[in-house]
Amino acid sequence: MGVQPYGGYPTVTEHLRASIRDIPDWPKPGVTFKDITPLLNDPVAFASAVDALAGAFITAKIDRVLGVEARGFIFAAPVAYRLGAGFVPVRKAGKLPWEIEREEYVLEYGTDLLEIHRDAIKPGERVLVVDDVLATGGTAAATARLVERIGGVVVGFGFLVELAFLGGRHQLADHAMVSLLTYS
């Protein structure tokens, strides 16, 4: 009989899916929020997610892994460690203390700004962008523009969850992309 390796689930995908809680009507009516805190609290699920994201890019010779504020930091830092790469935070406006590059992007209810230190990526360095959720793709596309503006090369994107019904994948069509879980 033996111990099943994925918290009693037959596959890592089933374990990850079971570790995400749906919160209906949050943060507003009609939205179902994907709460990843149970996954983060499950050491097997969390390690499996990090290993799967890193494993998808293990041969890509990544120099930097960018994590998008805030939940992207949670996955990007250990993925960077697993890939032997540096970790770079991409922050909301006003959070970085050094010289920055800034990119505005569109949200469904307005615009927002992302920032990165100008010296975080050297010209030609190979970059992986990691975030928890791909929704409309605006944040990920803005991050790619920042990377390219300071001379980096976006090798790919890694997401824990993709909300396919929002079409974000189309904004990233020119890049390799991995989503561990897809919701249609």
Any overview of this molecule?
With 184 residues, the chain is α/β, with parallel strands linked by helices. Helices cover 27% and strands 35% of the residues. It has a domain at 61-183: Rossmann fold. It has helices spanning 12-18, 37-41, 43-55, 71-83, 138-149, and strands at residues 21-24, 32-35, 64-68, 86-92, 100-107, 110-117, 126-134, 153-163, 176-183.
Helix percent reads: 25-40%
Query: Count of helical segments?
Result: 5
Low-confidence stretches: none
Strand order of the largest sheet: 5-6-4-3-7-8-9
The helix-strand sequence is HEEHHEHEEEEHEE
- Structural class estimated from helices and strands: alpha/beta
**Tally of extended strands?**
9
> Might you state the CATH topology name of the domain at 61-183?
Rossmann fold
Characteristics:
seven-stranded mixed beta sheet, two-stranded antiparallel sheet, alpha/beta, 5 helices, 184 residues, Rossmann fold, globular
Write the layout of secondary structure elements.
Layout: H1 12-18, E1 21-24, E2 32-35, H2 37-41, H3 43-55, E3 64-68, H4 71-83, E4 86-92, E5 100-107, E6 110-117, E7 126-134, H5 138-149, E8 153-163, E9 176-183
Parallel strand pairs: 3-4, 3-7, 7-8, 8-9
Antiparallel strand pairs: 1-2, 4-6, 5-6
Helix pairs in contact: 3-4
